[in-house]
Amino acid sequence: MTEDNRPADVVALGASAKGIQGKDIGAMRRYWQGMRKDGDVPRRSDIDPRGIEKLLENALIAERIAPGLARLRIAGQHLSDLMGMEVRGMPLSAFIAPDHRDRLSEALIELFERPAVITLHLSAPGCTGSPEMQANLILLPLRSDLGDVSRALGCLVSRGGIGRTPRRFEIVKVSIEPVDSTVAAAPETKSQPGFADPNAPFEHGPPILESERPYLRLVRDDT
């Protein structure tokens, strides 16, 4: 996968060695766990692709855009292969069968708001030209540079031939593991080098603090 204006020290997601070895959601979980500082949720900028080189083809970075909704900011080549097209910028729900998207939405709310580690066990029924597939997807919460939990590191591993695309999965099982974390940190003035992603069409601003909210004041006039 090619990214325009990418810093020289950022590894492209499609540049990893191919093969089944290393494509393990457990390895992604261990990497994420190792990035936690004092038990807190890691920042997106802490993620270095060189630390998950063997997983890059299956890796993703997702951004929360609304409660229960997330879009792909970065996606490995395997995810594009499953859809038969470039998936960067698409909603994560594009990989899920329509009848199962409510379950994904509920899981994404837990992921970002609790926060929690989400593991989805997936299945795609076989049909003409498309063999049956099984897959696992892990989603691990990340903080943005503003300190809010609005990003996710993920890994999607499938078994079976892809066949005709796009492939969409039914959710067989959802596992939710709450994460013990500290309160959101204050915004940083300088981001750290790490798993950089391309510019998005828009960015959400920081939440309005209570002291910044407009208010009305009653003025009494006794004249």
Tell me what you see in this structure.
There is one protein chain. The protein has a six-stranded antiparallel sheet with strand order 2-1-5-4-3-6. It has helices at 25-35, 77-83, 101-113; strands at 59-66, 69-75, 116-124, 133-143, 149-159, 170-178. It has a single domain (13-180), classed as PAS domain (Beta-Lactamase). The protein is globular and about 50 Å long. Strand 3 and strand 4 form a beta hairpin. With 223 residues, it is α+β, with helices and mostly antiparallel strands. Residues 1-22, 183-193 and 200-219 have low confidence and may be disordered. It is built from three helices and six strands, in the order H-E-E-H-H-E-E-E-E. 14% of the residues lie in helices and 25% in strands.
CATH architecture: 2-Layer Sandwich
First-last Cα distance? 72 Å
Overall pLDDT confidence? 79
Q: What is the approximate shape?
A: globular
- CATH homologous superfamily title: PAS domain
Secondary-structure element string: HEEHHEEEE
Look at the structure and give the CATH class: Alpha Beta
Largest sheet descriptor: 6 strands, antiparallel
Number of domains: 1
Number of helices: 3
Spatially, the strands of the biggest sheet line up as 2-1-5-4-3-6
Q: Structural class, judged by helices and strands? A: alpha+beta
Our estimate of the beta-strand percent is 15-25%
Give the total of beta strands.
Answer: 6
Level of helix content? Answer: 10-25%
CATH fold group = Beta-Lactamase
Classify the oligomer.
single chain
What integer value in Å does the Rg equal? 20 Å
Low-confidence stretches: 1-22, 183-193, 200-219
InterPro entries: DUF1457
Protein name: PAS domain-containing protein
Pfam family, one: PAS_5
